[in-house]
Predict the structure.
Amino acid sequence: MKANEMMDKDFIYVYPEDIIADVSVKMEKLRRFTTPVVDPDMKLVGWVTSLDVTRGLREGIKNVSGIMHHKEEIMSIHENAPSRLAVIETSKNKLISMPVINDNDEVIGVIRSFDIVDTLSSLYDVKIYKLYEAMQKELKGVTWEELMEASAIITRRTTGERIKPEDYERNIRNATFGEAIWATGGLEKFFVGLIAVGELVIAIKIGKARK
Amino acid sequence: MKANEMMDKDFIYVYPEDIIADVSVKMEKLRRFTTPVVDPDMKLVGWVTSLDVTRGLREGIKNVSGIMHHKEEIMSIHENAPSRLAVIETSKNKLISMPVINDNDEVIGVIRSFDIVDTLSSLYDVKIYKLYEAMQKELKGVTWEELMEASAIITRRTTGERIKPEDYERNIRNATFGEAIWATGGLEKFFVGLIAVGELVIAIKIGKARK
């Protein structure tokens, strides 16, 4: 995924000579906590957050140029850069948002932290059920019942919990990937459990084929 | 993971009778774009964002009570609630942050969107290599070389790319889970690829055992 697939295209922008009070109205109206500062060609020249605006209003500073962070001091990301770079910077520097620029240094969007949350969380929302369906499709010749039976056996072996295949099926109908990795204690453990299930059903499948 | 494991404990808070100009200084100094409004017992009574503060400063409103959103209008999350609820609300309502409360309605922290990004992205940063190590450990009797050989075969079969086991190993040394799911086109596809690898090495393993 590229930066330009995760950005807000309805971003606001301001000019260095804009009046701070007007900028504050614009930001409030459109609920934007940050705004890029651009020149007449839309080239990035700076960055303003609502906390710069409160200082400007309080101290009676008139223009955006008096409160903005200059281009050199801020993070920006190229539209074709991998979006995970934006994720890393947001997380490391606790950013609210960052501008997305093209080859000409023009601002074409803004990536906001909640846009990132939106993208990342959609992964977490994948139903475990879907992963099992993909697994069954890949493991040709294994029935759904065999898969649930194997999962119940592995769960009993791992957790000691006396779970039946039908309980297991009900659990994965509702659970998401995010819940499962938190419940199992991390991606590696979740994954090891699935490999164990895979190993068991494949052993059953090969056993059947040799009969 | 619970809400209280993901929250900022160094949050700021203000009282309804606080002077807005003072609050703005506090928010700027500690770089907080939002703040809970509490009563003397730390009970949540409202919420203020830096965009409410800019309006207050511009319109000459004196106290926090004149700009705050009342408790009933805002999202909060119980400290023991699953943190994914905070993720869902942040993503759905494009929130910058939300207060975390305990059984007594006291504010004990704030979950910020970049804290969520931080937590979610740590999952993405798991090295694929680690998953393969976990896989090898689970599949007792399968060597690392067999695993790489099987992965190269499956990759060739799926993508047509003429990849050697040593190329595959080099790829997974550097790649993260996040890169892999974006490269393969989603969690299910990534997962199907791994199951295919698992099936192949298990078939090899069982074949060896029967010799």
Remarks:
- The longest strand of chain B covers residues 44-49.
- Chain B touches chain A through 61 residues (CB under 8 Å).
